[in-house]
Amino acid sequence: MTQQIRVWDGPLRVFHWLLVLSVITALLTGWLGGSWMDWHARAGLLIVGLLSFRITWLLLGSTYARLSTLLCSLLALPQYLRGEWRQLGHNPLGVLSVFAMLGMLSWQAVSGLFTNDDIAFTGPLYKLVSSSLSADITRLHKLGLWIIIGLITLHVLAIIAHAVLKKHNLVTAMLTGKAEQQYPQQKPAQGGHWLAFVFAVAVALGAVYLASGEWQSKPPPAPVAAPAW
């Protein structure tokens, strides 16, 4: 009987599922437009916070969440293609998927802060760039939507392929945090302590505050017109 060992820490799993929900919300509200754009902006700010948390967790998280582990896995791509990869966590192709998704979502979240719809919606940092630059960013932001959809489709197909061909239930592992130990050299995740979590959350909250534009000076209120007697 194979032993279940810890692979994904709790903060990483919460991040993962919150990111899934927030990206779905952002895609749907952005597609609908109109009055839904306020919710699109809120989802975008949440994604900024989540990505900031994840980037911090690359350095402070547990074993299989760390950048060093991901890079070591990526360097093992030749062994993986030869069927000789025997580690836990993201395989080399999975690491490429993680980097692509984090990179593209970061672009979408940050670029959305400077966008406008030429009608009523403007991103929270719209005033920091020229109108022409905002128009260019908005055009690229809309193009990025299709790239995100493509990456999500590949991600889902990879999960299905693992379940069918290798009998690996990646969804369950991301829910429970545990996977089967198939080889003696596979070790459970270590690290990702509560102090690291508190620091990562503080970074995320700071990023959301900066992205929200609340720190920008507010225009003075319009003068109240004197009544005409």
Short key terms for the protein model shown above:
mainly alpha, two-stranded antiparallel ribbon, elongated, 229 residues, single chain, 8 helices, Fumarate Reductase Cytochrome B subunit
What features would you describe in this structure?
The protein has 229 residues and is mainly alpha-helical. The protein has a single domain, classed as Fumarate Reductase Cytochrome B subunit. It is 63% helix and 3% strand. The protein has eight helices and two strands. The protein has a two-stranded antiparallel sheet. Helix 1 packs antiparallel against helix 2, helix 2 packs across helix 5 and helix 3 crosses helix 5.
Radius of gyration: 21 Å
- What is the fold named in CATH at topology level? Fumarate Reductase Cytochrome B subunit
CATH architecture label? Up-down Bundle
Low-pLDDT residue spans: none
What are the SSEs and their pairings?
Layout: E1 3-6, H1 10-32, H2 37-60, H3 67-75, H4 77-81, H5 92-112, H6 131-166, H7 170-176, E2 178-181, H8 194-212
Antiparallel strand pairs: 1-2
Helix pairs in contact: 1-2, 2-5, 2-8, 3-5, 5-6
